[in-house]
Amino acid sequence: EPEVTQTPSHQVTQMGQEVILRCVPISNHLYFYWYRQILGQKVEFLVSFYNNEISEKSEIFDDQFSVERPDGSNFTLKIRSTKLEDSAMYFCASTLLAKNIQYFGAGTRLSVL
Amino acid sequence: GIQVEQSPPDLILQEGANSTLRCNFSDSVNNLQWFHQNPWGQLINLFYIPSGTKQNGRLSATTVATERYSLLYISSSQTTGSGVYFCAVEGDGGATNKLIFGTGTLLAVQP
Predict the structure, then answer these.
(1) d(CA A88, CA A34)
(2) B4-110: what fold?
(3) pLDDT computed for residue B39 by the predictor
(4) Which residues share a beta bridge with B89?
(5) What is the pLDDT of residue B95?
(6) Cα dihedral sign, B14-B19-B23-B29
(7) B92 in contact with A, Cβ within 8 Å
(8) A103 → closest Cβ in B45, B86, B88
(9) Cα separation of A80 and A19, whole Å?
(10) What's the whole-number mean pLDDT along residues B65-79?
């Protein structure tokens, strides 16, 4: 069964450093998402991406965050200057059609020290 | 925006017991998904169920869209079923297609 792949599974970084979280969505999907889950809390929407542009973003997704689909397969989330409060699990998701089932990757656990 | 509430927040079951988890949402939805988050943090998709009833093994789910709730039935629970169960919905209004998650039900199944 096709799946969403995320790398790395765990990323440790120093405060102020840039990190790039990588995702390979399911190959024929058209809509891509990033979600975040701070430890012990619920999963929160960060950003959605369609047709090579951001379609929606949350208040969390400030200027420190950016997304990119550099080629036909990868979808990345960049955090320019990490803060302690960016420590969380980050999930990538994709779907073929809007308002249809979203498939989630296994997540990247980001630890900012 | 749409609000999603789950109950109960915590639940302890003895292995083999049955239970029902509830998800209430405040507006009409086009998408409703149930997830199980395992101890490693992975979100496992259980059901895509914007309406109707589905069954998968010892799990089944029912969504009554007109009354804005969904139920997840767990029968003959097993210790491997421990973890957090999340309900997530996508509103049917406008261009938004993000999932809004509930706060989850933390389930502990004891041997």
Answers:
(1) 12
(2) Immunoglobulin-like (2.60.40)
(3) 86
(4) B32, B100
(5) 64
(6) positive
(7) yes
(8) B45
(9) 7
(10) 96
Which 8-state DSSP code applies to residue B66?
G
Query: Percent of chain B, pLDDT > 90?
Result: 86
Beta carbons within 8 Å of A16's beta carbon, 6+ residues apart: A81, A82
Q: What is the mean pLDDT of residues B20-36?
A: 95
Instruction: Give the domains, in start order, of chain A with CATH numbers.
Output: 5-112 (2.60.40.10)
**pLDDT score at B96:** 67
For residue A67, the model assigns a pLDDT of 97
State the amino acid at position B28 in one-letter form.
Answer: S
pLDDT exceeds cutoff 80 at B94? no
Alpha-carbon distance B34 to A87, whole Å?
25
Low-confidence stretches of chain A (pLDDT < 70) are none
Question: Is the Cβ–Cβ distance between B57 and B72 less than 8 Å?
Answer: no
| Straight-line distance from the first to the last Cα atom of chain B, in angstroms, rounded to the nearest whole number | 40
Which residues of A are less than 8 Å from B30 in CB distance?
Answer: 99
Judged by CB atoms within 8 Å, which residues 14-73 of B form the interface with A?
Answer: 30-31, 33, 35, 40-43, 45, 48
> Per the CB < 8 Å rule, is A99 touching B97?
yes
